[in-house]
Amino acid sequence: MYKGREGQWAFMLHRLSGIAILAYLLIHVFSIGSFIFGERFYMAIHETYDWPVFRIGLVFITAGVVYHAFNGLRIIVMDFTGAGVAYQRQMWYAVMVLTVISGLYAAWTLLPRLLGGY
Amino acid sequence: MIRARTFIDAKQQSHSNAELNWWIFMRISGLILVFLVLGHIYMTFIQVSESDATFTAVVGKLANPAWKFYDWLILALALMHGTNGARYSIEDYIRTRPNRAWVKGVFYTVVALVFAFGTIGLFSI
């Protein structure tokens, strides 16, 4: 792998998170949209999503979206200001901090529901 | 004025730069999606539990035209943004022309079907 340091990691993670979010979105539209086939069809899919694996997966989707959103803002700042390019490394660490904090926050709100089963 | 007889002529004579337009689109749609998608995740995952998203709850929520519009805006913008992003990846990592052609063909078809399905679903209630 090309070792372009933070800039390269930011780029790789942006692509990976983008593809993961797109894959999630396509499945999400199908499973939520499946209500047009009636309640039984919808609930059959939805009860599968109630399994802990999928619920924990949502925490990673949240973190992925937060990363993609804030790194996207970092890209916009880089594209339109010179200072953005000069401080891209520092901004990337800020994005990572926000991603970790929101991932932990999502996990923290999920935990009681996961243990309580609701 | 464009006097093209073939697709290649049309491409050579067109003044607009599609790639530049997509570049601008990615920035603008991204900026809008930051609010729409983070808001959606907050309202539907952080505030409420997975088990609250029952059939009745989803149908009841989507009966409201405001939510219909909100969700359709996410659907349209996110699919266009995501499809264009995936196109960048396909063009970067898939090396041969025929492979790029069929991967794009299959991928665009899937996206179009999902978009049609989501739109029909939203506006059928």
UniProtKB/TrEMBL annotation, chain A:
Family: Belongs to the cytochrome b560 family.
Keywords of the record: Heme, Iron, Membrane, Metal-binding, Transmembrane, Transmembrane helix
Cofactors demanded by this protein: heme
GO cellular component: membrane
Subcellular location: Membrane
Name of the protein in question: Succinate dehydrogenase, cytochrome b556 subunit
Gene this protein is translated from: sdhC
Listed GO MF terms: electron transfer activity; metal ion binding
Pfam families per UniProt: Sdh_cyt
Gene3D superfamilies tied to this protein: Fumarate reductase/succinate dehydrogenase, transmembrane subunit
CDD domains tied to this protein: SQR_TypeA_SdhC_like
Residue positions binding heme: 68
Primary location: membrane
Protein's organism: Deinococcus radiopugnans ATCC 19172
Residue ranges crossing the lipid bilayer per the database entry: 12-37, 49-70, 91-111
UniProtKB/TrEMBL annotation, chain B:
Origin superkingdom: Bacteria
Species of the source: Deinococcus radiopugnans ATCC 19172
Gene3D superfamilies: Fumarate reductase/succinate dehydrogenase, transmembrane subunit
CDD domains with a match to the protein in the record: SQR_TypeA_SdhD_like (cd03500)
Transmembrane segments: 20-42, 69-90, 102-123
The entry's keywords: Heme, Iron, Membrane, Metal-binding, Transmembrane, Transmembrane helix
One of the Pfam families matching this protein, by short name: Sdh_cyt
InterPro entries: SQR/QFR_C/D (IPR034804), SuccDH_FuR_B_TM-su (IPR000701)
Record GO terms (molecular function): metal ion binding
Cell compartments where the protein resides: Membrane
Gene Ontology, cellular component aspect: membrane
Protein name: Succinate dehydrogenase
Primary location group: membrane
